[in-house]
């Protein structure tokens, strides 16, 4: 018999380095559901890294691709779905997230920069001053994350397992039951 009690995914949002992919995978394992990552799906569908999309096509084109990937994921996935850190910049995406269980993984600037590193895989952090860039990113996105989150966990100083434990305790009733 197929379990249909969770018809919509639990969505994980947060800035780069907050642990969306790592914690999302752990949460999916604990719940016995599939894990999907919007950035991974985009790279697979586009056949190239996100940094290449940014470099050759620009952020606006990437955000349109991302918006379509999120819409498709919200419609097709039923497990845990991690979004890219900037997905919340789209008003359309924010509207589509209404009514979903949306987990916001918060992280402070110092910890976020440390975790995200200076990787070129994160095109918005590959600038001259990554700390200033990360601070500006947090300042712009934090209100958006909080406006749509139904559950928030500060990940600073916690291991991925500890974050997942906290989430399991905070997720609403049906969402927190293993399947």
Automatic annotation (TrEMBL):
GO BP terms, alphabetized: amino acid biosynthetic process; aromatic amino acid family biosynthetic process; chorismate biosynthetic process
Matches recorded under Gene3D superfamilies: P-loop containing nucleotide triphosphate hydrolases
Residue numbers binding Mg(2+): 21
Keyword Nucleotide-binding in annotation: yes
InterPro entries, A to Z: P-loop_NTPase, Shikimate/glucono_kinase, Shikimate_kinase/TSH1, Shikimate_kinase_CS
Main location: cytoplasm
Keyword Acetylation (UniProt): no
Tree of life domain: Bacteria
SUPFAM superfamilies: P-loop containing nucleoside triphosphate hydrolases
UniProt-listed Enzyme Commission number(s): 2.7.1.71
Any one GO CC term of the record: cytosol
Cofactor requirements of the protein: Mg(2+)
An example Gene Ontology molecular-function term: shikimate kinase activity
UniProt binding sites for ATP: 17-22, 122
Subunit (UniProt): Monomer.
Function statement: Catalyzes the specific phosphorylation of the 3-hydroxyl group of shikimic acid using ATP as a cosubstrate.
PANTHER family tied to this protein: SHIKIMATE KINASE, SHIKIMATE KINASE 1, CHLOROPLASTIC
Name by which UniProt lists this protein: Shikimate kinase
């Amino acid at each position: 018999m197929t379990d249909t009690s969770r018809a919509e995914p639990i969505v994980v949002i947060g800035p780069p380095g907050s642990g969306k992919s790592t914690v999302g995978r752990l949460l999916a394992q604990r719940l016995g559901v599939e894990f999907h990552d919007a950035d991974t799906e985009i790279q697979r569908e586009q056949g190239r890294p996100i940094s290449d999309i940014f470099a050759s096509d620009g952020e606006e084109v990437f955000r349109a691709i991302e918006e379509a990937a999120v819409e498709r994921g919200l419609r097709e996935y039923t497990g845990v779905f991690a979004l890219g850190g900037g997905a919340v910049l789209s008003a359309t995406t924010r509207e589509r997230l209404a009514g979903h269980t949306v987990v916001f993984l918060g992280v402070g600037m110092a910890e976020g920069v440390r975790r995200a590193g200076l990787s070129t895989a994160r095109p918005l952090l590959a600038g001259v001053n990554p700390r200033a860039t990360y601070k500006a990113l947090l300042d712009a996105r934090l209100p958006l994350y909080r406006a749509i989150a139904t559950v928030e966990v500060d990940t600073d100083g916690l291991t991925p397992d500890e974050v997942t434990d906290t989430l399991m305790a905070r997720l609403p009733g049906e969402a927190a039951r293993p399947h």
